[in-house]
Amino acid sequence: MAAPGATVPAARIRERPRWLEPLLVQAGALLLALLISLALGAVIIVWYGESPILVYSTILKFAFRDATSFGTVLSIATPLIFSALAVAVCFKAGLFNIGVEGQFLVGLVTATWAALHLDFLPGATLAIAVLVFAMLGGMIWAAIPAVLKVKTGAHEVVTTIMLNGIAVSFLAWALNGPLKFTETEGAFNVDLRSDRFADNALIPNIGELFGMKDSADFSLLFFLALIAAVLVWFLFKRMRLGYEARAVGSSPGSAQAGGISIGAVQIKLFLISGALAGLIGMQQLLVDKGALVQNYEAQLGFIGIGVAFLGQNNPIGIIFAAIFWSVLSRGESGLQIDTEVPREFVIILQGIFIMTVVIVYQVARRWAARRQLAREGQIEEMEDSAASVDVEGLAREDI
Amino acid sequence: MTQHDEAGRSGAPPLVVLEHITKKFPGVVANDDVSIDLRPGEVHALVGENGAGKSTLMRVLYGMYPADSGRIVIGGEERKIASPRDAIANGIGMVHQHFVLVDTFTVTENIILGEEGGPVLHTEGAEQQVTVLADSYGFDIDPGAVVEDLSVGEEQRVEILKALYRGVDILILDEPTAVLTPAETQELFANLRQLRQDGKSIVFISHKLDEVLQIADRITVLRRGVVVGETTPAETDKSKLAEMMVGRPVLFRLEKPTVEIGEPVLRLDDLRGGRLAGLTLEVRAGEIVGVAGVEGNGQRELADAIMGLRPLEGGSISLDGRDLRGLTTEEIRNAGVAFVPEDRHEQGLVLDMTLWENVVLGRHDDEEFSGTGGVLFIRKIKELASRLIGMFDVRTRSIDVTAGTLSGGNQQKLILARELETDPKLLIAAQPTRGLDVGAIEFVWSQILQQKAEGRAVLLISAELDEIYALSDRIVTLYEGRITGEYQPDAAAEDVGRGMLGRGSTETTG
User: Fold this and answer.
1) What is the ipTM of this complex?
2) A281, pLDDT greater than 80
3) Mean pLDDT over the full length of chain A
4) Which residues pair with B46 in a beta bridge?
5) Average pLDDT over residues B423-444
6) A-chain residues within 8 Å CB-CB of B48?
7) Which residues of B touch A397 (CB under 8 A)?
């Protein structure tokens, strides 16, 4: 059973640079996952008696037909980038921060408090203070599971899930109590909300500069999210803490024997994660609404888990994953107007996409690993036997 | 040697013949026209260095890799073996170095897994069968015991029984003694002799030459994918075998450098906690102290305690008079302690990270390698990595590959390079040559002796008596967390052996 493929000269295989291989596998897997998801989605669309082409083109049209549409997509993506980064930061050290949702909600509360009570701050410093308070709120809420984990060994998945529930109630209490509106004009409103923030607490809408209408809610916050992604990338690529975190994440024993304090690393990462989570709510708080409202958009912390996964916990990947996700979300409203398919179809499609990516990535990884094993694992072994001969300077001989 | 009586059976037709097997991986020929045969009632040892192709050959036989050319003949007929399932159907079983057992299942449940024979389990009947099977080969095992409660040696017996339960005649054991204590090894050998008596054919893959000489009837030596010779224990000895394997003479005793033994560097006094039960020990400058003992008597705890990786209940640790207890691992390292851990995957390297990232582990916060702002100086780290990899002859294509792609010997060299670069006062070397082949062992040993020559203190912890004897200036035995005896390097192995079982002199060193 001679396999001709096995006799390919080594030189031909090395033509492709080594770093390119994993990227190609990833890109290929992603493309494949996309095609499979779209095909599965098409089945559901046909079941509804609609044309898949119409549905998909509607989604694309609503995302890309003009600057305002795309601006809206980016505005939807902004909180998702923060959220997915928060998830990814913890994940790199092997921590599962399921509490991003709760940290985001607490950030909403602390930021609202700052916007209402620090209104003596001049100009943009108020907006900056509000952002800082949002991060502080997230950090405080993230510190609880972090300390519990390090001091008592309580698993962060359990504690963060519990804390999410408490955060929901905390926000409801704050909105009913200390943060409840005092303006009389709002008294007729059935909806519970805070007082409106001063203008200088808000993040300016800059959509106009890019030819977008105000309705796109496109603000500097998007660029802040991009900066955050670059900083996270830098943290893991170039900084001591990121290095320690990766070591702790993939081999806690070796990290510890190397003198790294696992607990300290875990707490620091949870705090960074919490700070990022605190910023998730700023798009709706400081750009869209200008006040904390009762029907705030929730679940963003959970969606971040999916987006982080799509982006493979890579900060740059996360930016694209968030935008992709938002294209679909934006398409929701289009479906209602132009097709017979219910808007929930988008949620189904997003779910299909995540599951497909899970499966396709796994399969692709195994495939790549097998390829590598067949190709390189043995070479390493052979090199070793040669190496031990070379120890004493003996020439390597070919047999 | 009783082997000769067994060898008389070699007149019987071989059970399996591997003919002209060639297996190429691009750039490398793992097996080049290899032919061997396996006869009933023999232990056939396959020896060779890591990468010599012995595991590849057996994986071809076990259906894990397809051969590029050559044939497998079983009972006179050529057979295609495309999967382990095929192999088992053809009477071939393999026990891998890393066991594949379900920890929460009982011995019986593990053995019948995949062979349940219907939707309803007949556990009692199966247990009966397993008992009969185990008894017939003298395997000491409780079929109802849960696997997670078993020792490593017992788990291995379960793996072997798993294969026997499936009715195999040929049993391939890949480095079976790598995970065993000396006593467990002897027990395994007793089992293997019983199997041989029963006409089974056993392939014993190993690079521990003493063991091969003890158990094998025939020995086939592979070097770089080629059979370089076949011999028997009667015709050869350890150094001849090693020379066949490596292709040059190998020194099993290295010249110990003569160095004046200096002041005590490490003092351990009455360490207690976990398995440690009042351990007192001293290591001096220029001295190698070998801690001998059966594994599980506190070796791991001893190293971890000195490194600050494990809390202690009592006792004191001092380095050059400085109290180390209560310091963090980082502070202990900075005080001048280098550590080669017994498990290089768990405590030595981060396998997913690159070589340069591993080389700086533990020193990444030195001023030299990262700034006050917390930014790593990657260029400097890479320079260090390139230099060390050259100095210690770590075989790799690049410093950007992950540590997991290196072979065991090269991983150990990488750790040694990292640990010795810091100019330590004390080196703790725990099982430093575990899993390495003879060439790599020689390198590691010479590096440890080099530390002594430079006047450093070395605490050598090893389960291999050979290694203890080859390197130590002073031997102590560790039993149930205490030092149970102290010996000169010319002491009889029997005496040291008694100490390892707690029956030595009970005096401890001062």
Assistant:
1) 0.79
2) yes
3) 85
4) B205, B220
5) 88
6) 385
7) 247
Q: Quick check: A391 contacting B, CB < 8 Å?
A: yes
Domain with CATH 3.40.50.300 in chain B: 3-239, 263-336+459-510
The 8-class DSSP code of residue A286 comes to I
Strands B264-273 and B77-79: unpaired
Whether B50 sits inside 8 A of A385 (CB atoms) is yes
Stretch A363-386: mean pLDDT = 58
Question: Is pLDDT of B474 > 90?
Answer: yes
Long-range Cβ pairs for the range B212-217 (8 Å, 24+): B212/B45, B212/B47, B212/B241, B213/B237, B213/B238, B213/B241, B214/B189, B215/B43, B215/B45, B215/B189, B216/B3, B216/B43, B216/B44, B216/B45, B217/B3, B217/B6, B217/B7, B217/B10, B217/B42, B217/B43, B217/B44
Interface A–B counts its CB contacts (< 8 A) at 187
Q: Measured between CA atoms, how close is A374 to chain B, in angstroms?
A: 6
Q: Do B364 and A378 count as a contact with CB atoms less than 8 A apart?
A: no
Q: How many residues does chain B have?
A: 510
Which of A:8-47 have CB within 8 Å of B? 8-10, 13, 18
Query: Is B165 in contact with B133 (CB distance < 8 Å)?
Result: yes
Sign of the Cα torsion B416, B469, B407, B459 reads negative
Query: Minimal CA–CA distance to A106: which of A306, A308, A298?
Result: A298
Give the integer Cα–Cα distance in Å for B20 and A283. 70
Q: What is the CATH number of domain B3-239?
A: 3.40.50.300
pLDDT grade, residue A381 (50/70/90)?
very low
Question: A330-334, A339-343, B432-436, B487-491 — which one is most confidently predicted on average?
Answer: B487-491
User: In this predicted model, what pLDDT tens digit does every residue of A188-216 receive, in sequence order?
Assistant: 556 788 988 999 999 999 988 998 988 88
Strand-by-strand arrangement of the B264-273 sheet? B276-284, B264-273, B314-319, B322-323
* CB spacing of B443 vs A253 below 8 angstroms: no
**In chain A, what are the domain boundaries?**
28-50+340-368, 57-338
Q: What are the pLDDT digits (tens) for B332-349? A: 999 999 999 998 888 999
| Number of Cβ within a 10 Å radius of residue B20 | 13
Rounded to a whole number of angstroms, the distance from the CA of A379 to the nearest CA of chain B is: 6
What count of other Cβ atoms lies within 10 Å of the Cβ of residue B436? 24
User: Of the candidates A240, A250, A381, which has its C-beta nearest B50's C-beta?
Assistant: A381
How distant is the alpha carbon of residue B39 from its chain centre? Answer: 28
Say if the Cβ atoms of A378 and B28 lie within 8 Å: yes
Handedness of CA A44, A47, A53, A54 (dihedral sign): negative
List all residues 6 or more positions away from B120 whose beta carbon is below 8 Å from its beta carbon. none
- Asked if residue B107 has pLDDT above 50, the reply is yes
Question: Cβ contact (<8 Å) for A6 and B25?
Answer: yes
- Identify the architecture of domain B263-336+459-510 in CATH: 3-Layer(aba) Sandwich (3.40)
CB atoms within 10 A of CB A302: 16
Contact A385 B374 (CB under 8 A): no
- Residue A196, token pair as written in the block: 């409106």
The CATH class of the A57-338 domain is mainly alpha
Question: By the 8 A CB rule, do B481 and B310 touch?
Answer: no
DSSP string for A158-209: HHHHHHHHHHHHHHHHHHHTTTS---GGGGG-SS-BPPPPPGGGSPPB-GGG
Tell if the CB–CB gap between A387 and B438 is shorter than 8 Å: no
Q: Which residue has the higher pLDDT, B489 or B178?
A: B489
Rounded CA separation A46/A368 (Å): 35
**Cα–Cα distance, B354 to B356 (Å, whole number):** 5
A257 CA to chain B: closest CA distance, Å? 6
- Residue B363 CA to residue B136 CA, distance in Å, equals 56
